[in-house]
Recover the amino acids of this structure.
């Protein structure tokens, strides 16, 4: 029988559609404005008492709240607010009541019902252009990291040649290569041997010029890549730690391409502060442990950072040997005896300073301080009676370790005597976190205020609605009953598109909304193709049932060709585009794929239900049919 | 159904296309494009005043406060102001500019957005955009050559180049800003215009195989007439939503919608005239479209 689907096809369409409805549903629930409370160190747990203090502050200010919860690991507390306008006020009150040591961030808490959450349904994430926030693109200056490493090679080689009694002049040339100048070929050959033994990763090159015998050393391509990777991933880790200091609810720190890092912070307005925290460089200090008889004007007392040694402290000299800027790397490793240690690399300047400071202080101890920026909050009353929070930054300096200096130290030294490999890797991590492996520059910054974000949503939704309405009216007028099928297919397309985007966790951006709008326009194309084919077949004298059948059959290959080529373009857009363009490409390609299902199978099953399996004199498809 | 003699006007269409193309290429060569911030690098600040803003006063303040070269324009309404700083300002100057404006104004100046783009990012983007377009064209040409025939691929790609150049030309001649979203729109035009061209090509192929003893001009006319209804309806629905987007979507999406409107308008025309016209020029014939022997036959012995 023509134009009757087997039962399973109807069931399939129905199943896909209800699946779509369920997974699109979370987007219907508007999120609650909320406050999110976390401790500023991972040791600080949020308990009932702390939550109680926060709620007390809200009660006092007359701000209505509900549904307060503490997460299972006791790391975060969440308080939902009745009134979004009072969110900022509530944040100020709560952070004042809790005092320093807590981060109170603005958040939008999803209100997805439990049963939906249980099956993994979640609302779409909104992009920064829709909810306001800052987007930074940072570039890791890997060239600087490479230069630093080359400086290290030059200094190490100088020392090694001196020890091997090979006379020659070693410098860093203007092309960033190691350059050695020697008086004879034998000297150069000896030097080559020394360098090749100590630094096999250098590619050596020999040149003769007049009386001088030159040797050039450059990093091999593999070593450069490795260093590049190291610098970028090191910066990623450091930036993640620093972003946590900012107290943003869902920060995004992501690598992009070779040496770029994208940081997205929703809801942040104070970009200057954010940039200061992200971009700060030095936060390690190496200082000698003070002699017992040192006058108190020359020494300072610092506590240990680790919890096992809580309360213990050391007196350190006030003079700083080097800061974290000079540290180019730190790795946990094992010494000859198989005991855990940490290897530290300094840049050339750092190496010089370190050797100068340690030469005459062998057997004394050296302390390593870890510096974190923290805040004291003061509240100042304004002339009009309102209060303004004033944040006073201060540096909290805590001692990581204080090992004994065994010999004069250079650009590369190790800390030994650690209890366990775990301790070693933790120490190395802290040392690395204190120093950025390579300098970073801000190459792009976009800030969207919250009002513009809200307006973008409003305008986006409005243009989708208006565009959709116009298409619906047109299709109904032009194609009558078939128009109804097309409109239903279009509605299914939108529902499935939203469901798919929610499921894959795609971020909805303004260009993404534009992609949806464009999908609306193009999704009807498949139906238009089919319907105009049906009209044509009817005009050519086919019976209505045959015409429907032939129309669908013949249009499919055209639809496939047309959509696959558009899909090619969408995939290219996704591959090369960044941020907003990617968002557009995702919605467009999802829309195209889904439209092939809804416009062909979806609309067919409706048409089949209406016309299938009975005698039909005339199709309600508009146009002349005679 | 009456066959419309589309190809009768092909000389006129060729002249029309040539004029548009020459004007576009000429303008692109002389005026180039009004590259947006995404491509040139620089700083852009959009602020909202709680009362109508005095642009002259703002310009004065910025001039004296060390923001030389700042371009101040109103954006949408008279309360919204867009300030552009040329390249050379650092990433910190956007925030400083906002403070300067607030200091000089009694009411509230609300930050809408700040965008800072470093020069290296812009250059890369331009390069990537160009590469993306070329890759898209190349892959599409391959796909069509594989699915249809080489002459169709040439026709389709020529139509695409035609549409893209004229859309770019429109942006060059009007001086409208060309930013990242417009680039996305131009790439979408490639997809869309292709869609149109393929539907027509599909029908031309079908008719070449079906209709006997007819000359190519006649067959193409028949095919175009048969697909005209669909071409117009699809363009119309897309144009309807684009108009909604252009009018109600807000300033940030305006350029995108306009680029697509122009591109789709031109794309509709080109799928009728440019691709088909080129097929005739390349002397397409029935022999180009012999139906390949069915699956399972010895493919090796087939030579096109």
């Amino acid at each position: 029988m023509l134009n009757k689907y087997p039962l399973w096809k109807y069931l399939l369409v129905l199943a896909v559609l209800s699946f779509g409805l369920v997974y699109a549903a979370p987007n219907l629930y508007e999120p609650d404005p909320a406050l999110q409370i976390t401790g500023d160190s991972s040791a600080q747990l949020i308990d009932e008492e702390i939550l109680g203090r926060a709620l007390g502050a809200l009660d006092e200010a007359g701000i209505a709240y509900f549904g307060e919860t503490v997460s299972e690991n006791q790391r975060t507390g969440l308080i939902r607010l009745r009134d979004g306008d009072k969110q900022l006020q509530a944040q100020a009150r709560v952070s004042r009541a809790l005092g320093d040591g807590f981060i109170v961030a603005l958040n939008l808490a999803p209100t997805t019902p439990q049963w939906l959450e249980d099956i993994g349904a979640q609302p779409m994430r909104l992009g920064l252009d829709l909810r306001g926030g800052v987007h930074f693109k940072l570039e890791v200056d890997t060239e600087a990291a490479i230069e630093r490493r080359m400086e290290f090679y030059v200094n190490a080689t100088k020392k090694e040649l001196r020890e091997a009694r090979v006379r020659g002049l070693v410098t860093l040339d203007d092309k960033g290569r190691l350059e050695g100048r020697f008086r004879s070929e034998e000297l150069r050959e000896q030097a080559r041997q020394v360098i090749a033994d100590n630094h096999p990763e250098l590619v050596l090159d020999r040149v003769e010029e007049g009386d001088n015998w030159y040797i050039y050393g450059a990093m091999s391509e593999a070593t450069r890549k490795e260093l590049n990777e190291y610098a970028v991933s090191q910066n990623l880790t450091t930036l993640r730690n620093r972003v946590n200091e900012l107290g943003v609810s869902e920060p995004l720190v992501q690598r992009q391409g070779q040496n770029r890092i994208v940081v997205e912070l929703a809801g942040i307005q104070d970009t200057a502060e954010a940039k200061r925290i992200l971009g700060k460089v030095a936060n390690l200090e190496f200082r000698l442990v003070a002699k017992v008889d040192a006058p108190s004007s020359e020494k300072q007392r610092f506590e240990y950072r680790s919890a096992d040694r809580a309360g213990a402290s050391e007196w350190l000299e006030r003079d700083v040997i080097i800061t974290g800027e000079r540290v180019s790397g730190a790795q946990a490793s094992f010494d000859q005896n198989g005991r855990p240690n940490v290897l530290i690399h300094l840049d050339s300047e750092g190496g010089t300073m370190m050797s100068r400071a340690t030469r005459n202080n062998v057997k004394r101890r050296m302390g390593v301080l870890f510096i974190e920026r923290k805040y004291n909050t003061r509240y100042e009353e304004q002339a009009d009676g309102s209060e303004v929070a004033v944040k006073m930054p201060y540096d909290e300096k805590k001692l990581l370790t204080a090992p004994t200096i065994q010999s004069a130290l250079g650009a590369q030294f190790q800390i030994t005597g650690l209890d366990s490999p775990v301790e070693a890797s933790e120490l190395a991590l802290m040392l690395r976190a204190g120093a950025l492996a390579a300098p970073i520059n801000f190459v792009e910054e976009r800030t969207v205020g919250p009002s513009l974000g809200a307006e973008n949503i409003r305008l986006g939704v409005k243009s989708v609605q208006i565009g959709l309405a116009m298409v619906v009216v047109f299709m109904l007028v032009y194609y009558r009953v078939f128009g109804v099928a097309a409109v239903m297919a279009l509605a299914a397309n939108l529902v499935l598109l939203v469901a798919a985007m929610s499921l894959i966790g795609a971020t909805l951006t303004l260009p993404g909304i534009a992609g949806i709008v464009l999908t609306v326009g193009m999704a009807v194309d498949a139906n238009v193709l089919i319907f105009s084919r049906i009209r044509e077949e009817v005009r050519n004298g086919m019976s209505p049932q045959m015409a429907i059948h032939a129309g669908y059959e013949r249009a499919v290959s055209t639809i496939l060709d047309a959509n696959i080529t558009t899909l090619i373009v969408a995939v290219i857009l996704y591959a090369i585009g960044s941020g907003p363009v990617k968002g557009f490409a995702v919605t467009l390609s999802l829309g195209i794929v889904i439209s092939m299902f809804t416009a062909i199978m979806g609309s067919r099953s409706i048409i089949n239900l209406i016309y299938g399996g009975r005698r039909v004199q005339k199709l309600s498809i508009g146009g002349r049919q005679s | 159904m009456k066959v419309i003699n589309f190809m009768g006007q092909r000389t006129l269409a060729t002249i029309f296309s040539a004029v548009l193309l020459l004007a576009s290429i000429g303008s692109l060569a002389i005026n180039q494009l009004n590259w947006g911030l995404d491509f040139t690098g620089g700083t852009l600040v959009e602020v909202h005043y709680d009362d109508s803003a005095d642009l002259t006063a703002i310009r004065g303040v910025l001039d004296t406060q060390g923001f030389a070269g700042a371009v101040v324009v109103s954006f949408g309404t008279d309360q919204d102001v867009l300030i552009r700083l040329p390249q050379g300002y650092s990433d910190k100057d956007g925030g400083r500019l906002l403070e300067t404006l607030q200091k000089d104004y009694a009411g509230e100046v609300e930050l809408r957005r700040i965008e800072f783009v470093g020069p290296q990012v812009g250059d890369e983007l331009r390069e990537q955009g160009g590469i993306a377009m070329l890759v898209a064209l190349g892959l599409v040409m391959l796909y069509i050559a594989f699915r249809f025939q080489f002459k169709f691929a040439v026709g389709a790609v020529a139509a695409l180049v035609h549409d893209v150049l004229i859309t770019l030309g429109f942006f060059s001649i009007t001086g409208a800003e060309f930013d990242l979203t417009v680039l996305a729109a131009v790439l979408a035009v490639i997809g869309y215009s292709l869609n149109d061209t393929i539907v027509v090509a599909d029908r031309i192929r079908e008719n070449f195989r079906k209709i006997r003893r007819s000359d190519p001009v006649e067959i193409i006319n028949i095919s175009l007439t048969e697909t005209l209804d669909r071409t117009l309806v699809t363009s119309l629905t897309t144009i309807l939503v684009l108009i909604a987007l252009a009018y109600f979507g807000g300033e940030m999406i305006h350029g995108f919608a306009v680029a697509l409107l122009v591109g789709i308008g031109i794309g509709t025309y080109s799928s009728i005239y440019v691709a088909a016209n080129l097929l005739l020029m390349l002397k397409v014939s029935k022999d180009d479209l012999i139906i390949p022997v069915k699956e399972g036959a010895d493919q090796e012995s087939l030579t096109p």
Q: What stands out?
A: The beta strands of chain B are 34-35, 42-49, 71-75, 77-85, 109-117, 177-178. Chain B is about 65% helix and 10% strand. Residues 295-304 of chain B have pLDDT under 50 and may be disordered. Chain B touches chain A through 70 residues (CB under 8 Å).
